[in-house]
Amino acid sequence: MTKHRTAKITFAHINDTHSHFEPSSISLTLPTSVLETETSVYASCGGFSRISSAVKEAKSHAYLKEREFMFLHAGDCFQGTLYFSLYKGLANAELLNAIGVEAMALGNHELDMGNGIVADFLDRTDFPMLVANWDLSQEDQSKPNTLRDKHNVYAYDASNDIGRYLVKDVDGEPVAIFGLAIENMAGIANPDPDTSFKNVVELSNKTIDAIHHNGINKIVILSHLGYERDLLLAKELDGVAAIIGGHTHTMQGDFTNLGYGVTDEYAKVINGTCVVQAGCNALAMGQLELDFNADGTLASATGKNQLLLGRQFTVDATRTEHLDADTHDRVKQFLTEQSNIRFCAKDPIIENILNMKYRPAVRKLQTQHIAEITEPLRHVRIPDHKGASQIAPLVVSGFVWKARELGFNVDFGIHNAGGVRASLNPGPITCADISGKLLPFAIGLMVYQVKGKRVRQALEGAINNAIDNGVEGTGTGSFPYVADLKYTYRCCSEEGARIESLQVKKQGQWLDLDDNTVYSSVSSGYTATGKEGYSALLDYVVEPQAVNVTMAEAFEDYARDMRQLSAPTEKLISYIPCECAQVVGL
């Protein structure tokens, strides 16, 4: 019989870093007592160089307190900035290695471009990916780079019907750690169809039983399920001391002292399991001090999230207008006294990697002006009282233009609103604005052929999904914007009849879309493969064909050709909301 002992470990953890290797400028709203008035100042926050320094400090502190230490990433390192647009997983692999990550969960954005990019990423990492519910047992082994037999993928073990897990030695006492990914991965990302995801509760219970059977009673889960799902999972499972999570960008802790309010307590304990998450975009690091009883139950869970700040504060977001010396000292003194702030010097090792390998190309793109924005271009997902998005239709027009330039005879284009991430201000637009802000998801375009009735069904399905109209939707991001296509959506009509006046533009003329005619369309690979309400597009006549151009690349070429971008003047969408009182549109 195994004789277990108590164990103490400190986990440093980050999640949803989304290639934010560089610091961000954040606003801090200080209490009136600091400067005798409510004041906002700006600070440089986060970035991988500061995370690296913070991890080293946390590790030293843990060892001084005779605690074991481990640094975890709870998924979604891909996408988000120019660094990913340019280097895909290569930069992430090198920099995550360099900052000392010891294990990582699989995030949904890791699979935006299929399994192959994850396989390439893992060939370069020094740490394992923990994803116990990813079933790779049916993976096609003829692929250029397969995942199933990689030593650093702790996935589903089909032969034993459990998830693989990592064992961390904590002063002679084993602690098992396994990872969980979103079950509906195929609904929000692009995993290859020969791999699937198991139910997290069933798989977790089987894995926990196997861990206990192997003489280990101390268990931690590394999750990319989202905060609310982690809280529910804590209720559903027994025998788990902690769930270290990601996906929802939840910043636990009280940040009212900095103007950010409160989002639950750090290390929320439910059913004997503590749940933690550390925000997003490499702005903060969580530090969880986890103590186990000898029987594996949670003895205590303490710690905090801390914003990782530089030591200079300014009046403006561009960080060029500095505070006077006295004001700066008072601000710095106040922030030094705050437990949710950690001042961090930049690690010169990480800075050197960025300077030598990655920054030059990024800086070059940040200075390339390719077009002029003539007026403010507003982006909203669902049309509101001010109308629809003004930038999304231009983005779709760019897709159509680029596909035709490449020789594809497309009739129209469709794009989901969530794929566009920013409004645009008047003035020059750069490659960096497009790839790093407007269209940061490095997803390719696809051309596909479907009958008109499937287009009609896809438009309705996507809007139903966006507004939860008779379905359990996945978010507002599925709302469809179009080019060379126009339609009316009447919310209060019967399901299946909500799309009206559906027309396609042919040789300058608007013609009714025929349900039985085959049309060619261009969309992102995300939309073309039926995600979030677009499932009708999967009933294609000709299988979707990759254009081998990303969304950002297509729009960049379109903007360069147009030279000037203004709000569309032609009304393509009439959205009649469920009140049926008014029409809002483009």
Automatic annotation (TrEMBL):
Boundaries of every Calcineurin-like phosphoesterase domain copy: 10-250
Gene: SO3317
Every 5'-Nucleotidase C-terminal domain range: 386-537
GO molecular function, one term: nucleotide binding
Keywords: Hydrolase, Nucleotide-binding, Signal
Pfam families: 5_nucleotid_C, Metallophos
Protein name: Hypothetical 5`-nucleotidase
Family from the record: Belongs to the 5'-nucleotidase family.
Biological process annotations from GO: nucleotide catabolic process
Signal peptide: none
Transmembrane segments annotated in the record for this chain: none
Gene Ontology CC terms: outer membrane-bounded periplasmic space
InterPro entries reported in the protein's UniProt record: 5'-Nucleotdase_C, 5'-Nucleotdase_C_sf, 5_nucleotidase/apyrase, Calcineurin-like_PHP, Metallo-depent_PP-like
